[in-house]
Amino acid sequence: MKNRLEEIRKDRGIRQEELALALGVSRQTIGSLENGRYNPSIILAFKIARYFGMQIEDIFIYEEEDG
């Protein structure tokens, strides 16, 4: 799954630390999400979307794997 989290966060002038604090996660979690090393739980995805006033689908892009 790809995401636009870093792009959206930077466009709004929000630091990773600020976002992490607002969501109740570590800065490392935000970094891992942005680098595609970690997929969020559905609850965290909803929290992120709500924080930015967006739909989950506007932030997280699901791509089906072949097979």
Describe the protein in words.
Helix content is 57%, strand content 6%. The chain is mainly alpha-helical. The longest helix has 11 residues, at 42-52.
The whole-number mean of residue pLDDT values reads 95
The topology string of helices and strands comes to EHHHHHE
Beta-strand percentage range:
5-15%
| Lateral arrangement of strands in the main beta sheet | 1-2
Q: In this structure, how is the largest beta sheet organized?
A: 2 strands, antiparallel
Secondary-structure content class: mainly alpha
Number of helices: 5
Distance between the termini: 16 Å
Radius of gyration: 12 Å
In which range does the helix fraction lie? Answer: 55-70%
Q: How many beta-strand segments?
A: 2
Q: What descriptors fit this protein?
A:
67 residues, globular
Give the topology, please.
Layout: E1 2-3, H1 5-11, H2 16-23, H3 27-34, H4 42-52, H5 56-59, E2 60-61
Helix pairs in contact: 2-3
Protein name: Helix-turn-helix transcriptional regulator
Domain HTH cro/C1-type: 5-59
InterPro entries: Cro/C1-type_HTH, Lambda_DNA-bd_dom_sf
Question: Can you summarize this structure?
Answer:
The protein is mostly helical and 67 residues long. It has helices spanning 5-11, 16-23, 27-34, 42-52, 56-59; strands at 2-3, 60-61.
